[in-house]
Amino acid sequence: MNREGERAVVAPPRGVLVLAAFGVAFVVLPVAGLAIRAPWSDLGSLSSHGARTALGVSLVVTGGAVALALLFGLPAAIVLARGRFRGRALVRGIVLLPIVLPPVVGGIGLLAALGRRGLLGRPLEAIGIRLPFTTGAAILAAAFVATPLFVLAVEGGLRSIDPRLEQAASAMGASRWYVLRRVTLPLLRPQIIAGVVIAAARALGEFGATITFAGNIAGRTQTLPLSVYQTLQSDPGGAILQALLLVAISLAAMIALRGRLLSP
Amino acid sequence: MSLQVDVSARRDGFALRAAFSAATGETVAVLGPNGSGKTTLVEMLAGLIRPEQGSVALDGKTLDDARVHVEVSRRPVGVMFQGLLLLPHLTALDNVAFPLRARGMRADRARREALDILGRVGATAFAGAKPDRLSGGEAQRVALARALIGSPLLLLLDEPLSALDVSSRTTIRALLRRELASFGGVAIVVTHDPVDAMTLAEKLVLVEEGRVTQTGAPDEIRAAPRTAYAADLVGVNLFIGRLDPAGDGTAVIRTGDGDVACVPPGGMAIPTAEILGVLRPADVALHKERPEGSPRNVFHGTVRFVSVEGERARVGIGSSPALVAEVTQASLHRLGIAEGAGVWASFKALEVHVVRP
């Protein structure tokens, strides 16, 4: 590594290197374990009905969760970064709470709010909406844990934009909407893409809130992680293959993050 | 009078109090040291901040007063921002078209007009480039075009020549002079550089520590500067003209109103089409009789004004070129200097500081 602009540094002490090596090994070992223990000859079982269905549900749930993160997370990030109101720190803490909350707590919370006996469950049911144990519930559970990560990424991006550029745009006759559409959002593109990738990765791996709020119903709410867990009881080899599929998807997301998508 | 400003404004705890006016077609330079409140004035005229008190009127229409505050996006104002602030995700062409697009013009028409203006400022060649691909001078041209598009009634240029290297400064300054001369509205140039101010504007507004300390034509301020800042920066003698060789390493500035001998710095090309000579009034010596000896520059004229400031006095001399000298009160009496009297003035060629405008 001798890239231009890289500055000379004092090499870290040997002890730090050793501990760092353990840290790296700690990540590599499980993944390597999966690859080594996988029954590669059974690779065809991935195309079995159950695994394919779970993958399909996962993609729908992840896509839906990302859509919700964009729809509500983007405005939330803009308000948190640009708005000036009392209690902003409190609102910010509430919005970001799911990051530190155990997902199962989120799932129970969703159940308490939107379940059949929940706060909004009855009114929703009155207008014909029944959420628990539907794909919609799985989407909500995934969005609950993924949106804060998206908000965090976009909010950081907004803070790095020179506010004078937006001021200049309005001094050139642009309305607030026009500034947002033609200046802020284009400048924010790299962070929005990064936020989408992070939120998608988190939604894809969601387990606790989903199984609590949406259950584990094949073809409807059983996402790939739930399927891995269930398959493990009866077919450890098949579970490993499905787990490797998740590894592959996550790696692809990481590569997308590093690639050209990130440059403005 | 087309622009009337009489306001006090506040920004980040910094207070500005300013009153001045400007006629249509006139270029006014707002000149002051860094941190004097110039940018606050620009932001207020652009509508980004609202004055606390007072009013701003343009062509008889109120932009700001106790009741009215015309929205920033609805002001007929073109701005060249300090640091330019070209939008990094748009090409030069789309940057210039932005003010028209923002006001609702269709893309193809806006682009056509933008291309016209880019041609006027000599920037057609890089119309398709993003700002990070432009040199300092190129970016300046694009920013100027963006300020001029849409025929604003008020043009605000905030430090339009800062952050440029010497050679592009000269060309951009010439471009600015040409554009300002043909501009039909009121133009305000904000700068901390007196040379920029005096070469671009007919009228100066001096701002110090949030207050306007003096307004007037450069000649008027030179005659009677009210503050030390005014005296130091605007109160100097300026000679603008062609630099011609004069043998033995010296040169003359042909001002069109008499020649001034000078010693240009090494490396400066002689002849040069336009050059600026700066002479401090304190370096001008006054005499009753024609001085003998070495000074290369000797001029005779009648005393146009005498303004006394403490122990020092500024003497304006109607020579060719006209001069301002600063002398002590004692020598004023010794030489019998009074308005209308004849006087000799001299200064060394070395004391004329030659700079490229």
Summarize the structure.
Chain A is mostly helical and 264 residues long.
Termini distance of chain B? Answer: 30 Å
Largest sheet of chain B: 6 strands, mixed
Shape of chain A: globular
CATH superfamily of chain A: MetI-like
Characterise the protein shown here.
The complex is a heterodimer of chains A (264) and B (357). With 264 residues, chain A is mainly alpha-helical. Chain A has a single domain, classed as MetI-like (MetI-like fold, Orthogonal Bundle), CATH 1.10.3720. Helices cover 73% and strands 0% of the residues of chain A. Chain A has eleven helices and no strands. In chain A, helix 2 packs antiparallel against helix 10, helix 8 packs antiparallel against helix 11 and helix 10 packs antiparallel against helix 11. Chain A starts with 13 loop residues before the first helix and ends in a 6-residue tail after the last helix. The mean pLDDT of chain A is 90. Chain B contains nine helices and 20 strands. In chain B, a hairpin with a 2-residue loop joins strand 4 and strand 5. In chain B, helix 2 crosses helix 3, helix 2 runs parallel beside helix 4 and helix 4 runs parallel beside helix 5. The radius of gyration of chain B is 23 Å and the shape is globular. Chain B starts with a strand and ends with a strand. The chains are: A mainly alpha (264), B alpha+beta (357).
